[in-house]
Amino acid sequence: MPVAKVSDINMYYEVLGDGPPVVLLSGWSLADRAFGKLVPHLKDHFTCIRVDHRNMGRSDAPEGPASIEQMSDDVAGLLDHLGHDTAQIFGAGGMGALIAMEFAIRHGARTRSLHLGSPSLKVDNFLAEMMEVWRQLRHLDVRLWAREVTLWCFTPGTYERNRELPAHAFEARAGENTFPSPNSYDRIVDAYVKYDATDRAAQITAPTLITTAGIEDMITGPRFAKAVHDTIAGSRLHVFEGTSHGYGAEAEAEFSKLAVEWLMLHR
Question: The AB hydrolase-1 domain covers which part of the protein (predicted)?
Fold first, then answer.
């Protein structure tokens, strides 16, 4: 099991493929499930690096508060461990985008290109309240928590046309041990809610692609992504209309095509 000592933790990671490095940062999923449909399109051209963030999966979950800033420094430490001075940083799933954005702020010289999937400069009161409900629900019943989160990730149309897609996402979310303990999930939620890049995101100079679902994504969606786009000079924004937070699955072919083209452009 590949584990690197970075910062104050042992961090689990996977390396697939060969070529220039791309760090794939997911939200609330483990390394071996993250970007499962995208990696086959990338591994013939890139070294794909996937990780379990601190407080998740097979990485350590130290006591005390966690932060997005810590998690971005963990990525920098892993690149040091693997001997990569620079990499393309591909963050998605909301939290993965925050870690990627913070990496580009703190380690700009190491960021060859940046993808931010469902990013936010900071959460609003609605999302903070939603995450607090999720936190309490997960303490009560993990499978009920997984079903609730999954409902917010797909559109009603997807439930009608392709019921198997959210059903599979639910089983994966409920079945994997994403968070080793209730406290580790609490720390992840706290880190997400406390993060604020409002006054710092303009420092990003790396070529940046921002993707988001349409207005049916009430978790993140355009209300956040457009603010990030307005803040990062020269960034490109792509909205997957008619999708929700799980747009990478709902618009799989379009998303994969865009992602591969972006990474190849900056290869």
Answer: 20-245
211: which strand partners? 117, 238
Burial class of residue 65 in the structure, from the number of CB atoms within 10 Å of its CB (0-12 exposed, 13-18 middle, 19+ buried): exposed
Res 174 pLDDT > 80: yes
Q: Any idea what the CATH number is for the domain that residue 68 is in?
A: 3.40.50.1820
What average pLDDT does the segment 214-231 reach? Answer: 98
Strand ranges (DSSP E) for 153-235? 208-213
Say how far apart CA 20 and CA 188 lie, in whole Å.
Answer: 30
Domain span at 191: 3-265
- The chain-wide mean pLDDT, for the chain, equals 96
The angle subtended at Cα 71 by Cα 69 and Cα 75, nearest 5°, is 115
pLDDT digits (tens, 9 = 90+) for 228-239: 999 999 999 999
